[in-house]
Amino acid sequence: MPFYEPPRPVDGGIRARSGRGSIGEQWWSRRFIDVLESFADQGRLTRGRSYARKGQVLDLKIDAYEVTARVQGSGSRPYRVTIGIDVIDGPDWQAIEEALASQAVFRARLLAGEMPPEIEDVFVALGIPLFPASSDDMHIMCSCPDWGDPCKHAAAVLYLLAESFDDDPFLILAWNGRTRQQLLGGLRRLEPTAEADPLDIEEAPLAERLDDFWAPAAVRDRPPAPAMPPGLLLRLLDPPKVKVRRSDLTDVLRPAYEALADL
After folding, report:
1. What pLDDT shows up at residue 226?
2. For 9, 16, 153, 185, which has the most beta carbons within 10 A of its beta carbon?
């Protein structure tokens, strides 16, 4: 069993707010942590949480497609950590913004500074990941000699990154290449398409309609209602304060709702 040398204590580091248990409170940060904990070595994750809570991460910067940080370990110099994700190109972001702007509830909540849980469905429908789905979707590098994926230094950064998402969910979008200002500016430029009034009928002078004046008016057919997405009820209701193996009950039930929709 390799010898574990404790990190050197530092002053002024970034400390996780969570003193024990899970890190990440909101659905978006928990989704991110669930992906991390699905593939990473549990021992390194435990040490990474300890590093995050001790304040071993000296700084953390979120840029488009890249997170950088310095972490003080047991060595004399801090290690440098970089976590990259794949680039979402301009046409894909234009499609995302158009899809968000076309739905009034998304547009209103985003402009109000809220992150609607259904936003992930928009990305999925377009085949664009909002969150990394596996270790292959994150390019994790650390200057330490540990070959772990991730090492404890990178794990500490990922946990603090999740807490940053708790504070400002728009940082998830910034990491994916759109700052809050850029996204909201794009939504404001994209005016929603006005829907035709289904009761709007073509008018004609009375003299031309005497023959059929008493006939029922021709009412335009309503467009078919869109299919109800599976699990809509789970999204509309407030989630119960019930956890199943550290996952929200709604996240556990969602696959069952999706399976029932296929029957």
Report:
1. 45
2. 153
